[in-house]
Amino acid sequence: MSFEEMALPVTSSTEPELHPDQERLYQDVLRLLKEHGIPHVISGAFALQEHTGVRRPAKDLDIFLTAESAAVALDLLDKHGFRCEVCDPVWLAKAHRDDFFVDFIIGMSNAAIIVTDSWIARGRPATVVGIQTHILAAEELLASKLFVVRRERFDGADIAHIIYATAGQLDWSRILELSGAHWEMLFWSLVLFRYIYPAQSQYVPLVVWTQLVNRLMLRLLNPDSTARFRGSLVDENMFAIDVKEWGLDDLLSEYRESRAKKIQWPSDNVAADKGAA
After folding, report:
1. pTM greater than 0.90
2. DSSP label of 13
3. Are 52 and 161 in contact (CB under 8 A)?
4. For residue 86, how many other CB atoms are within 10 A of its CB?
5. Is the dihedral of CA 35, 19, 145, 135 positive or negative?
6. 107 neighbors 66 (Cβ within 8 angstroms)
7. Which tens digit of pLDDT belongs to each residue from 140-198?
8. Under 8 Å CB-to-CB from 154, ≥6 apart: which residues?
9. Pairwise CA distance, residues 47 & 137, whole Å
């Protein structure tokens, strides 16, 4: 593989080209979900483009939905000839046709942030590959990127672009609600935004800065010697030594094991149909 092939795409407003078969796959999946009333919203490159104007090649179509809806969608697409698989029941399934696929995402891989019905209800209308559908609201899109901070992939620039492109006209109470116990991940993303766009600090309301700074100061003034190590929630590979050799907490495994709703597929009906065949 050449350096050019390995290089990451440069941010641009230029419309990326989709392979005709790839576009037809996306259109067929979205039509089927729409026709059968399966609640979902579009995320990924298409949602980022709608909210920020940043365009980049879409290697797949990210569809956010609940665990229950994901199972229904997989049943549906399986019956229509797609090759479906559950890659990780905690967060990811795929539907393939030829060389292309769509992702069904029910939350973050570390199970710290979970897609709920409210994510779907708050979606905003948009046209994706010529199909009338809905994309994630900017608040949920931002929240979905809080833990994408691995060595090989970092979405901090996406968060900064969301805040900048919306001029901070966001429901910050919703963002704080979505970040929940992981508010420090939000806080450091906002500090990064402040560093990148110092003249636009006001895009993050002062009340948000004050609330988060006060939370941090409270923790610093009242240190908790029993607070648990959280590195594995950020990157299980970079912090593997902490868990496997230094004996620190493996919160990632605990979060994933406690995920109440996972993708349950194949369903009994699909399994029975295939067995009969």
Report:
1. yes
2. S
3. yes
4. 18
5. negative
6. no
7. 999 999 999 998 899 999 999 999 999 999 999 999 999 999 999 999 999 999 999 99
8. 148
9. 8
